[in-house]
Amino acid sequence: MKKVDVVIIGAGPAGSVCGSLLKQAGVDCVIVDHADFPRDKVCGGGLTVKAWRLLDSLLPGLSYDFRPINRIRLQFENDAVCEFNAEYPIRMTLRKDFDNSLLQYYKQAGGELIKGSFARFKQQDDGHVLVRLKSGEEFLCKYLVAADGGNSRIRRQIAGPVDMKRHALFLEYYVDGNHHDDVYVHFSHQYKPGVFYRFSSNGRDMYGFASADTNEDYPRHLGKFRDTLTKFQVPEGNVRGAYIPLKTVCSPTDNVILIGDAGGFPNKLTGEGLYDAFKTAYNASRAIIENKSFKDTNSEVFRKMQNQQKVYEFFFSRFGFWLVRRLLHHPGAIKWLFDTKMKREKFTNK
């Protein structure tokens, strides 16, 4: 049995950022992940200004490849396209390379990565946590951090079976090469609640479809996505999919912390997950370093998740959808709302 202060399950953005912050503070920690990096993941890979500003402040000197995109195009059904240039660019990355850059930053700070798959954890009488991997390897730690994504085993041990009605289904398809230079989002009653989108990524165009109306009816949504690709004259190819949890879960104990997708922290309306992966990773590190409760250090994010659920329900209501359609006839107003939201966001609690 190995003894360590913190065990982090998952080497994605949330886990790697949390590990780097802990190493910077001199905390003994290890990250456990079953994947071989670099590895790809279903995700648009876009970092909004609030996300890359936060990341720059947390991991100074981090280097990663990205393609800056300022042009935003929004369309409702066959209405005129609402188009504007955002004040700050969205940094489009390839998750395969971006996640590996974060992991390498953690390693350069002296962090250890252990290849393995999480099995179970058990609270000990002395306040420690016993973590067991599928290989039989065990760790005794003060804190266990779940950063193992939407299918988190730690989350399932805490909260039970996943509620599929509180998940979003994301389908993605890639075309190599840079054929566009924008972020395009299409709204339609045909896939409400949900959207079709195209991101001009770094070295490829990424087409996606998001829907919260999953009901485990994957074939129907896949068919709808393929029909939409045909409508936009996109050649057929392999489609990848993933379910992302929308229900936020808080651990009942202070020494087990759920962050990123594992805690259900993606934006309930847009699906953006990287900003809150960084934010919750930072708040988890604060809880550990300062010996505080994650409920306290992450209270702002918990409140935001509750508010986002209300906004989501209004957005896809009959009146909300009608209002969005009317607003898209006024690009200046949409640009102001978009830029204002990006500048208003708080980046750290420092």
TrEMBL record:
Positions of transmembrane segments? none
Q: Which Pfam families does the protein's record reference?
A: FAD_binding_3
Fetch the InterPro entries from UniProt.
FAD-bd (IPR002938), FAD/NAD-bd_sf (IPR036188), Geranylgeranyl_reductase (IPR050407)
What residues does the FAD-binding domain cover?
A: 3-161
> Recorded GO terms, molecular function?
FAD binding
Q: What is this protein called?
A: Dehydrogenase (Flavoprotein)
What is the organism of origin for this protein? Xylanibacter ruminicola
Q: What is the lineage of its organism?
A: Bacteria, Pseudomonadati, Bacteroidota, Bacteroidia, Bacteroidales
